[in-house]
Structures are given as C-alpha cells and as structure tokens.
Amino acid sequence: MPGENLSREEARERGQLLAVDGYDVALDVRSAVARGADATTFGSRTTIRFRCAEPGAASFADLLAPSVTSVTLNGRELDPAEVFDGTRIALTDLAAENTLVVDAQCAYSRTGEGLHRFVDPEDGEVYLYTQYEPADARRVFATFEQPDLKAPFTFEVTAPEGWLVLSNGAQEGPAEAGRHRFATTKPISTYITAVIAGPYHYVTDTYRRTFDGGTSRSSAAENGGGTELTVPLGALCRKGLARHFDADDVFTVTKQGLDFFHDHFDFPYPFGKYDQAFVPEYNLGAMENPGCVTFREEFIFRGKVTEASYERRANVILHEMAHMWFGDLVTMHWWDDLWLKESYADFMGSFAQVGATRFTDGWITFANRRKSWAYRADQLPSTHPITADIRDLEDAKLNFDGITYAKGASVLKQLVAYVGQDAFLEGARRYFKRHAYGNTRLADLLTVLEETSGRDLAAWSRAWLETAGVNSLTPQVTYDAQDRITELSILQEAAPSHPELRPHRVAVGLYRRLDADSALVRYARAEVDVAGPRTAVPELAGVERPELILVNDEDLTYCKTRFDEGSLATLRARLGDLTDPMARALCWAAVWGLTRDGLMPARDFLDLVRRFAGAESVIGVLQSVLGQAEAALEHYVAPEYRERTTRELSEGALRELRLAEPGSGHQLSWARHFAAVATTAADLQLLRGLLDGTAKIDGLAVDQELRWAFLLPLAAHGVADEAAIDAELARDDTASGKRHQVRCLAARPSADVKAAAWADVVDSDALSNALVEATLSGFAQPAQRELLVPYAPRYFAVIERIWRERSIEIGMSVVRGLFPSWQVDRATLEAADAWLAERPEAAPALRRLVREERDDLARALRAQACDEAAGPRP
In this predicted model, what pLDDT tens digit does every residue of 461-470 receive, in sequence order? Predict the structure, then answer.
C-alpha cells in the first residue's frame, strides 16, 4: 500500500488552500459484462471545478488507477506520465478558479474497495456497487479525497442496456443508449458518493410526511414544497435473492425511522429519495451514502433466523438513517472526529429502535452485546480516546472500532442522562441548522449542548471524550448484627496505563428473594454520582441485607461492573433467577468480563452457561452468551481440562436443544451452538443424521443455512469429505453456497488442505474479499491445533509483504485472520514480541494489528492460568 496514504497535515494544508465548487463524474461500466482481462477496467472521466486561495500555488488530486489517458488543467494539457504517479496527480500554478479534467481507466475491485464487480455463480449475472469509506472514491474517479472538501456531485453512468443504475441523486429522465444521468447532489464528501449498477431486483414504496408549524418549513419545501415531504423509497438485491427478500419489513422500519427522526430533529430528510441496496461480498455491515445506502446482503435471510437477526437489521437500518443527519448533512473535518458521526449513529440506532419499532429490548441488547465490543477495544494496547489522534488514512481505517462506535454511543447515552433528553435533542437540532452541509469539530457540538443544557461540558469532555480506558466499579458493604447495611460504598479503579477516574451517574440496585423459592427481584434502589476512588451511597444505609448488589443497574454508565463476594456467590447459584431482563443481561456481561480478565475461571463461566442460559428469555442475550461460551472454550479453558469441558458443554447444548420450544428462535440458537461445540462421535453422528434425515428433533427445520452450519464441524472432524461438501454445493449452487463450500473445504483436518488454504490467501490475490474471509475462517479450527503449529513462524515472516502488496481491507483480514491465536503458549507470545521489537519502522497500522492480536493472546494465557489454578472438578 505504498503511496496511497494521506496524512492529516497534508489534508489540512490542502483544505486551507482549496475550495471545491462541484464534480461532474462520467463512468462507463459497459466493460463489466465482458470476460477475462477485458472486464478488469472501466472508463472514468472527472471534471472538478475548484478555487485556490493562493493563485500560483501547487497541490494535488487523488486517483488510484492503472492508467490515465489525459489530464487537463484550465485548458492546459498535462503529460500524464509527468503528473500522475499512480496515486496522485500533481497540480501546479493553480489559478484563483480552476477546472481539472481527468480521463482514466480505473480498475474494478475484487476486494470490496472502490467499484466492486461480482459475478453471480448461480446465473452468471454481473453486479456492481461502490464502497469508499474512508478514502476509496479515488479508485473510481479523480478526487480531493478528504471529508472537509465537500461539493455537489453530478454523476453520469453508461451501463449495459436494461441494467438498473442508481446514485445519490434521482435519475433525470429515462436512460438513453444505456446512459443514466442523475440529479446534482447537495454538498457532500467524496467518501459517501455512490453508484449501484446491475440487473438488481428493485422494489419501491413511498414515505409521506406532513409537517406542522413546529418543523422547519424551508427544509421541507426543498424536498417537495410547502409542509408536505415525499421521499421515494427503494430496496434492491441480486435477482438470486429476490425470493428471500422481505422488502415490506425493510420499508416498515424505514418509515418508522423517518418518522422518529423527523419528530426529534426538526430538519426534514435532506437528500430527496432513499434507496437501500443489499449487495454481495460487502466488507461492512452497511454504509450511509445519502440517498443510496448499501448493506451486506446477509441481512436478507435465506433461512430461518431468530428475532435477534431482525432486531440487528433494524438497528443497522436506523443507524445508517441517523447518518443522513449525523455525518452526511454535517460531517467531521477530519477522521479525528469520526465519533461525531459513528457514536451518534450507534446511539441513535438503539434510541430510535426502542422508541419507534417493535424491538423494544434494544437497550438490553446494546448493554450486553455492543458494550462488550467496546470493553474489549478499550482494554487493548491500541485503545484511544473517543476523539482520536488520526495521523493518516491507515489510522482512520483501523479506528472504525468498538470505541468509536459502542463506547461513544455509551457515553452519549449517559450524556443524555447528564444534560437531559430535551436539552440533548435541542442541541442536535441547533447543530444541524447551524452547520448544514458543512464540517464540524468537537467544539462545535459542545457549544450547542452547553447552550441548551446550561452546563459547562469542558470537564465532562476531558474525562469522557479525550481520555482512554475503562473504569471498574465495585461495591463495598458492611452490615450490623440485624443484617442491615451500615455502609455501602462504590470503589472506582482504573488501569495504571489509563489512570483517569471519571464521573459516573449510576443506579445501585439491591436484589433478593422474597422467600426461599422465589425469584431475585429488586427491592431497593438509589442513584448516585460516583467521583474519585470511593463514593458512599448513604441512601441505602439501614436497608436489609441484599443477596445481590448491582452497581450499574439499568446500565446508566460505561464501566466494568464488579461484585462483592456475596453477590458473586448469588450469581453462581441463582443467576437465572433474576427476573429483570436488563439486570440479567448486565450480570451476564459482567461475569464474561471477569472471565476475560482472568478473575473468574473459564470453567466457572461455562458452568453458569450450562445451568442458566437455557432460561434466558432475550434471544439476543442468549446468542451473545453462547458465542462467549464458544470463545471461552477455545481460548480460556486450560488445555488439560478442555476435552472434558467440551463434552460437558455439548451435552448441555443438546439438552437445551431438546427442551427448547419447537420451532422457536431459542431452539435454533441452541442447534447452532451444539454444532459449534460438537466433537464426540455421538454428536457428529447426530449432525449427520439431521443432515440426511435419519434423525429428527421436534420442530427443528434443517434449512439450507442450517445444513451448512452442521456440515462445517463434520468437515473439520474429517467426517465429511470433499465429495460431501461438493454435493452440498450442488444443492445450493449460489454465491452464499460457494462461500460456505470454501469455508468447509479449508476446515478439513489435512496438512495438504491447510497448505492449500494458506497459499490461496498468502501467495495469491485471486480470491475475492468474501472468499478470503471464508478461507480464513475455515483454516483455523479449534480441534486442529497440531496441524497449525508450522504456520506460526510463517505468519511472522510474511505479514509485512502482505501489508505492502495487498489493499488495506485484505491486509487487515489476513493479518488478523492468520495470527496464530490457536497456539496459546509463551513461545507464540515471545514470537509476537520479537516481531514488534525487530520492526519498529513497520507501518504503524500493521504494528497496531499485531499488538492487538498479541494482547488477546496474552489475555488468553492469563485466563488459562486462572482456570488451571482452579484445579480439577469432581
């Protein structure tokens, strides 16, 4: 990736020098339907009109392209060989007003970056879509690739006749000879422009909203006149997925979200139409291109899924919709303030989900799943403040992480509690109107929130936005002779590397059984502002002894929750007896945190899963807990206890599978978990029977997606061979089936198989991003540690080359996916340390990835030591 980076300093200098008045981009993608080498490039012609604050100065435009045919600056023909170096176009002797025209041959992508070209193996149809964040628009047209140089865009796309073609603006008139022209956009950043082209299945609907006098009439008028807003809606996917596409549900959530944001933002949807494209081989969950949002097509469900999957899809739809205001209408100046869009969208996704849709448990899922992601990221050596120090584009790419998203959203959730919901939303409304179609920094947001709340937010910002790390809150309690609380305090701790003790507004809940056979219920509660290392909670003095003290009841703050000894003993005995689903979710998250931190033996956590997960009513929490159980088994159980623990976990999974309500989401979750932990001959025989129809479990429909889930462990344990895997592909000869087949083939327990899989991703770049991902996930199977031993030294020998030669997306996938995490031992840790010590000049982003994987390995060693110290169980 040499020469592709852009530093913050370069962007700042260019942003001060240039202002962009508009882009005209003409793409010719008729070559997409050609075969072989003829389908590798497409025509791109860009006209950029821009001003220069210092006439006579020099600057550059960005372009990643195999070749440039011509470059014209202010009517002056420039020699492409002299001004284009493969990544940048040098611009000298700029005038006050300039016109740059660039004709290039740009490359179709197979990595999901730029203009991705996908050939559907089911019917041979070709599908195109773009994905740019943070800086891949330059793979498609010449740009000034930084978020603060916003401009209106006019796109024209020439495509094969009969194709559906979409962009950010609405199409102007019918296509002529395959040429589609789109309405000029409002000023937007380069990274959120978009083009979709192909024989997509397209469904339409319309959103209408009449505004009263309390909503900005001028904004509404821009979108249709008067106080009536009409937004054309579209939803699309590949033709091969059309039979599975539940567009009505997508439109329902979309309309609910638009209503919710209109109710709260006082700024009508600003980008005209609203298309949502579900596209193949997508690297992300989704992308907020205004008027043309893209999603990974896995959100179209080919088989039965749990309600948690629909909840997740709704959350992503609303997250991307929130970006229409937070990120698209108002955009950060540079990636330092990425949180100004991602943290807000993550918060607003759950806020709108709970407030507007059927998924009213959204905050419970957020507390258990999203925050677990944040806690992990915040304990890595690469942790950073929410307002990060982003030196360049490689830094930016890696900062789409649990801190920027989930920690930021958690902090915003408590900011709402701190300033009040009304003041928070009024601040958002002023922010949109004050900075519409512009760029902002942290200070701009704090200014409006201080205006609406009357609070000085400088100290809050320093503590929560400008420092890294997560605090731990632990209750400390004493009792009198009558078993009443004499003193209850909250102890706050921070890691030595990030010693900031923050202010927390928390609810402390006391739980107990009303009688010997009843459930655990809350009988006392107090809210308190935690500050410093110790904070008393005098409101609870004199209250009868609880069985459980929950110091972050209702999930008001962002912290690691700890327990006193009595509370932890209660959870070990009665976690499933907590009736409140939020309290239960928080306790599950807390005991998982204890396990990851090496403070609870992994087998203790798995014992809780075996005994209490079957009673978990919130399906999203259940799926999270089962995933954590699989991770604990693979990484945190001491090796000498792994075989027995695996057997016990699979026995428990099979028991719950048979007990679950037939046809329910819980039954499906237990079926997938059973397949993930199945190892014994009896387990594998049952999976084979479920596949061939000789075994049945009442209510369990083994559809195609579940068949692949059952086939993977059979392949990994050598029970299903290549012929069986190919036969399954014949049943499901689709793009999804191909990914599953590649994963299963790479999972087989053979040295030759592992060598071939390694060569496919390390020695070749022929695989698409989706097939690289499938190969990586099949390569490293938990039961195949001995087979994988030779690959640890090979990994450290090749990753610099991989980083240098591959795109950043593929580089990240390979560096993370092939790290020898299967080999949890001191030698692997020392090899990682040696690589880091010997290569101080390696790319900072690459070093960050290795440091993160190294930290997870060290954490696994500590957790295994904790589990080993607990000794054998009866």
Answer: 999 999 999 9
